[in-house]
């Protein structure tokens, strides 16, 4: 490709609404162009990256035996009503009516349609397993679209769906996809982790996220540097504490802590470690009648160590809280604790509450908690003496760095990631809802065992940039760079030698199948190099009259701090080496 | 590809709603699957065809210097309000509101968005010409979607838009695209014609349709077998008649023609050629006030020869009818003619009408027309004697086979076609409406001169089938076949020789880059061959034990009536010859 025939559009400044670096750099490098909130044009430079991502995904999906189809963007509501998602999904599901007033949705995903295909097309166990995938436009009407392609409304996703005759067979399909994903992410040339994720109501361990590691990632990833344990923070188990509770050594007393309504404030005031304080979280559950009207509510008090954070997924597995919970209202808190939040604790309650104690709190002695009196805390609190031994003890907290790994092989570390892939065992959730069956070996109809597997095609370039950039711009891995090599001839219009050398190298690289761009725009050197450093093409060759006179050109990888002089007649071999050709 | 790992789903019967052969065969061969009215899943076999069409289009668009982008499916209404199309377009434009109540459309085409990109990105004449294209999902909410992918609601289109600094430059871009289209359609391997089309209000000749020739096509195409003249019937000019009016030879008289209300009926009753009769068509025009209320209507009488059909485009160019017209109401007809339709004519009117006479009628003598009295016609009517010489004479009719070609090089013929491409000079229609300018050489802002260029990606396979099929199924051209070669081993599971021979040929073809499928499903021969004839793979090799014993396999092209025995060790060379490798 010659730059003069392409479309290069770079900007010095990012728009004001760009908050994260990938959004800023994608806008500045002209990869995307905003059309509306969360809706972007994919410009020529950006589309090249997206097409390379698609090609790698398609190749590996095909290699893994999946078969490509395309399901419509606009889908009839009927199928979505069969699974109940038409009603259940929130406003992020874009609903429309056609000219005849019939309901449709813009697909955010395609479980319903693919299950409808399967129940018509896959009639016998002999046709299984089957994995159908598409690379298709999706729409989710996010309340607050932001971060460019990271959380857009219209985006492209690769979504695959496997159909199997049994749970065991489904596990094979799942592992097959998991392997394909590793292959795909290896080929992208990004640092990533496959981490265990919560599989919600379906249960089991068959849910993993593929996270691209980046300091700016939305997700916290827990991993063990000494083993292959890795999990989403939501999912990561805390091991049961190994210590035992020390004996009580202090008497319980009330201390004035005016204006100190958080554990860190109290610990600082009292000059004690944060880990000796206990925080009180007040939740509530509602009991509904047939008509969905609340007939009774219960209040719950959760105790966690002051230096620990609540994990909502784990709390949601506590018996009594597993049908859904909410934070308690101010009125509920005051009627049970006789006090405003900030000074709450398990002592001196006005009305009984359901107490759930984190395992680490259950082995504490001489701890500190709110006194249920504004401006006061209790110190030297002890189980069995000042209040009864806790009867409900559970894992309620997020793990923290330094916790023991659940596999017993070391201590956990935490880093941040961006979810770009997800493999998920669905079971018969959709096949049951849609009565999707096949004839099993025993001659009877059986529900499909399903899995679903997504990759955020248009999110991936954003994640790649979050991981790979510097103050000058993007640094693409070779596999998904818009161009692999850029040739920058200086003063091409005025020097026949430069022109001849650049053209010869360009032709030689094209003949090798290298994705090369020749910058024939005749820009000033500074502007030219700034453009390509912003755009992030990994390999650059500068060709100048001065260099040619001494028989050299300059090679620089985008990660190099300086250019390397290479003999003019050795540059092709040098590039072949760098490109692994 | 091995059939066992692919997705093959054929049906003996087509669904009842499939009216045209391409729809029937695409459903039966499992290329597409209906999801809703005019909405289809592209199944694996069909998607392979679509991807090949896309790849050819993309390659030739790139070669022609166009640059690929992707514009969103869901587009903000604001831009569509700038051109007025948000209001003006009928219900085929699917309109939606997002969760915040903002208006959006599902793109049926992208002139607004691409012009918005151009006005922001193309600031100087130095950046021109530029041609941006996309291959993207479109939606048009057709009132009566039908014929499968021929007239669906959701479909894929390649739409390109050129931006130029002058009308002359725009013509160069137009011709460049026209050439690329010829290249593309040549590569598809289909019989087609580029025909002149009406360019509506914009005028000029710069509008051509690419029509795939098929007896079942919706469009009539006029062409001259002895020259390269070709036009859509709407557009094709009738040459001015070369003859002169004969002298009147009959007196005018009224004859009873009870129940004979059409020209053919009258001609038959009277035993005269249809070309001696004249048909009367009554139109009306309305004059509106500021508020759009009709303040005055006029009635128009058009006279055409009984064997000719009215051409609405041509009628719409007659002064007085060029701002829009409608057919007259029953009341308007009776108040002016004193008679019901079927017996109308230009004589004995109750009120004056605007008379427009086709050129061929203006040179007739002794003609026949309605008497404006039910059950009666006039015969022996003559201009200048029985009614004044016509003052408004125009080309009002469709050409017919045998008319002289407008280029003077022979007689016109008519065949039918399916429009799958359109190249169109837009001028400054959109750039003016959206104030899209660039800085011209004189330093002043100027409006872009635009062109737009479409190809119906998902319609093309349907058109290809309409042109290429027989009673057994589809016959694909090599370039867009889902697979180029199918290997059909008989009894592969029971014969090592068959298996070895099939595998060797399969591997050899794969190594050559041939898109080959090996049918390893172990189906009965009859069922296997019926499947592949229905699906329409152009080249087939049958490998059997019996053949191998005498050292042969059987080759058959899908168009051949019989298989050809080919030496086993010569089949690869034979295939290479057939495939042009």
UniProtKB/TrEMBL annotation, chains A, B:
Pfam families in UniProt: HGTP_anticodon (PF03129), tRNA-synt_2b (PF00587), tRNA_edit (PF04073)
Q: Where in the cell is it found?
A: Cytoplasm
On whether Cell inner membrane is a keyword of this UniProt record, the answer is: no
- State the SUPFAM superfamilies in the record: Class II aaRS ABD-related, Class II aaRS and biotin synthetases, YbaK/ProRS associated domain
**Domain of life here?**
Bacteria
Domain (Aminoacyl-transfer RNA synthetases class-II family profile) ranges: 33-477
Q: Does the keyword Cytoplasm apply?
A: yes
Question: Which keywords label this protein?
Answer: Aminoacyl-tRNA synthetase, ATP-binding, Cytoplasm, Ligase, Nucleotide-binding, Protein biosynthesis
The broad enzyme category this protein falls into is ligase
Domain free text: Consists of three domains: the N-terminal catalytic domain, the editing domain and the C-terminal anticodon-binding domain.
Q: Which family does it belong to?
A: Belongs to the class-II aminoacyl-tRNA synthetase family. ProS type 1 subfamily.
Q: Which PANTHER family match?
A: MITOCHONDRIAL RIBOSOME PROTEIN L39/PROLYL-TRNA LIGASE FAMILY MEMBER, PROLINE--TRNA LIGASE
Describe the subunit structure. Homodimer.
What role is this protein assigned? Catalyzes the attachment of proline to tRNA(Pro) in a two-step reaction: proline is first activated by ATP to form Pro-AMP and then transferred to the acceptor end of tRNA(Pro). As ProRS can inadvertently accommodate and process non-cognate amino acids such as alanine and cysteine, to avoid such errors it has two additional distinct editing activities against alanine. One activity is designated as 'pretransfer' editing and involves the tRNA(Pro)-independent hydrolysis of activated Ala-AMP.
- Its protein name is Proline--tRNA ligase
Annotated organism of origin: Comamonas antarctica
């Amino acid at each position: 490709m010659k730059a003069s025939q392409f479309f290069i559009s770079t900007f010095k400044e990012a728009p004001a609404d760009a908050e994260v670096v990938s959004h800023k750099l994608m806008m500045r490098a002209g990869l995307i162009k905003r059309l509306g909130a969360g809706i972007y044009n994919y410009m020529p430079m950006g589309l090249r990256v997206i097409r390379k991502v698609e090609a790698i995904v398609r190749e590996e999906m095909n290699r893994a035996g999946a078969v490509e189809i395309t399901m419509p963007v606009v889908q009839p509501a009927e199928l979505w009503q069969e699974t109940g998602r038409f009603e259940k999904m929130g406003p992020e599901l874009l609903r429309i009516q056609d000219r005849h007033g019939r309901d449709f949705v813009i697909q955010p995903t395609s479980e319903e349609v693919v299950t409808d295909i399967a129940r018509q097309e896959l009639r016998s166990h002999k046709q299984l397993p089957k994995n159908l995938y598409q690379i298709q436009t999706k729409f989710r009407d996010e309340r607050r679209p932001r971060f460019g392609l990271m959380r857009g409304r219209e985006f492209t996703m690769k979504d695959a769906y496997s159909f199997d005759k049994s749970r065991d067979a489904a596990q094979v399909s799942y592992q097959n996809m998991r392997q394909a994903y590793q292959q795909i992410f290896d080929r992208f040339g990004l640092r990533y982790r496959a981490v265990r994720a919560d599989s919600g109501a379906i249960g089991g361990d068959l849910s993993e996220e593929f996270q691209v590691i980046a300091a700016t990632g939305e997700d916290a990833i827990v991993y063990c540097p000494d083993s292959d344990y890795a999990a989403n923070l939501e999912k990561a188990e805390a091991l049961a504490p190994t210590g035992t509770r020390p004996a009580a050594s202090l008497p319980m007393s009330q201390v004035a802590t005016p204006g100190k309504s958080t554990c860190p404030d109290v610990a600082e005031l009292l000059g004690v470690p944060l880990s000796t304080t206990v925080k009180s979280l007040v939740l509530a559950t509602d009991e509904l009648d047939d008509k969905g009207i609340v007939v009774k509510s219960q209040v719950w008090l959760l105790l966690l160590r002051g230096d620990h954070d609540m994990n909502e997924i784990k709390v949601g597995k506590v018996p009594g809280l597993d049908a859904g919970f909410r934070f308690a209202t101010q009125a509920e808190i005051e009627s049970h604790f006789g006090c405003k939040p900030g000074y709450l604790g398990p002592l001196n309650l006005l009305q009984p509450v359901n107490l759930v104690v984190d395992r680490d709190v259950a082995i504490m002695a001489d701890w500190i908690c709110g006194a249920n009196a504004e401006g006061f805390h209790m110190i030297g609190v002890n189980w069995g003496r000042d209040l009864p031994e806790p009867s409900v003890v559970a894992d309620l907290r997020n793990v923290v760095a330094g916790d023991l790994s659940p596999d017993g092989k070391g201590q956990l570390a935490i880093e941040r990631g961006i979810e770009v892939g997800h493999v998920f065992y669905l079971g018969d959730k959709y096949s049951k809802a849609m009565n999707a069956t096949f004839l099993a070996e025993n001659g009877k109809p059986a529900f499909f065992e399903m899995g679903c597997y997504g990759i955020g095609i248009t999110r991936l370039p954003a994640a790649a940039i979050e991981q790979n950039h510097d103050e000058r711009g993007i640094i693409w891995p070779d596999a998904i760079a818009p161009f692999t090599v850029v040739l920058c001839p200086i003063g091409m219009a005025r020097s026949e030698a430069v022109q001849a050398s650049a053209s010869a190298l360009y032709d030689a690289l094209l003949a090798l199948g290298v994705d090369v761009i020749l910058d024939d725009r005749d820009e000033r050197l500074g502007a030219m190099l700034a453009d390509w450093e912003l755009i992030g093409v990994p390999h650059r060759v500068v060709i100048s009259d001065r260099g040619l006179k001494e028989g050299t050109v300059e090679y620089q990888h985008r990660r190099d701090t300086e250019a390397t002089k290479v003999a003019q007649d050795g540059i092709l071999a040098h590039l072949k080496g760098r490109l692994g050709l």
